[in-house]
Design a protein that fits this description.
The protein is of the alpha+beta class and 175 residues long. The protein has 3 helices and 9 strands. Strand 2 and strand 3 form a beta hairpin. The radius of gyration is 24 Å and the shape is elongated.
Length: 175
């Protein structure tokens, strides 16, 4: 009799775990996308004696079934000194409408089925005694990796997409 009760309780427990698992899988999760193919062209923001500031926008969205959080967004610019030493290119990522100067990204909630835009801001410093125009004149195409650290119902994950800042696009900024 006791074994029958224990068996029924164990069976009910296993059935409950299965039902909760199915319920959770039906609920879905947040799925963030960085839409780098829809990015805008770079636009000149400000000109200084030894640098130019320019920016572009990259849309993103959440195509999942649940609200998600973007905890951090940042970029990596692939322009090593060994490849081209006349320009130091730096960048930061901000939310559209929330531009900051302190390199801090303000975390944000992204409801399911919605999206916004990131503003990627670049600073191009002329080096080796060259003017900005001279330094940009021979710059190569530059690959950029855009990262977003996201969280939904599951563990933290990182979305990473690449795009290229073309040499022609950067040269057009200083003409």
């Amino acid at each position: 009799m006791l074994m029958t009760i224990v068996g029924v309780l164990v069976g009910l427990f296993i059935l409950g775990v299965i039902i909760v698992g199915v319920y959770i899988s039906i609920q879905g999760d947040a799925v963030m996308r960085l839409l780098v193919k829809q990015r805008t062209k770079a636009v000149l923001d400000k000109v200084y004696a030894d640098r130019i500031d320019f920016s572009l926008e990259v849309p993103f969205d959440n195509v999942g079934k649940q609200e998600g959080t973007i905890l951090d967004a940042y970029m990596r610019i692939y322009l090593p000194q060994e490849q081209y030493s006349d320009v130091l290119l730096r960048g930061k990522v901000n939310r559209e409408g929330y531009l900051r100067e302190d390199d801090y990204f303000e975390a944000m909630l992204v409801p399911a089925g919605t999206g916004e835009k990131f503003v990627l801001r670049f600073e191009a410093y002329a080096k080796n005694g060259k003017s900005v125009e001279e330094a940009i004149e021979n710059i190569p195409d530059v690959d950029v990796a855009l990262f977003a650290d996201c969280r939904g119902r599951r563990e933290l994950y990182t979305v990473k997409e690449y795009f290229t800042l073309t040499a022609d696009e950067m040269r057009a900024l200083v003409k």
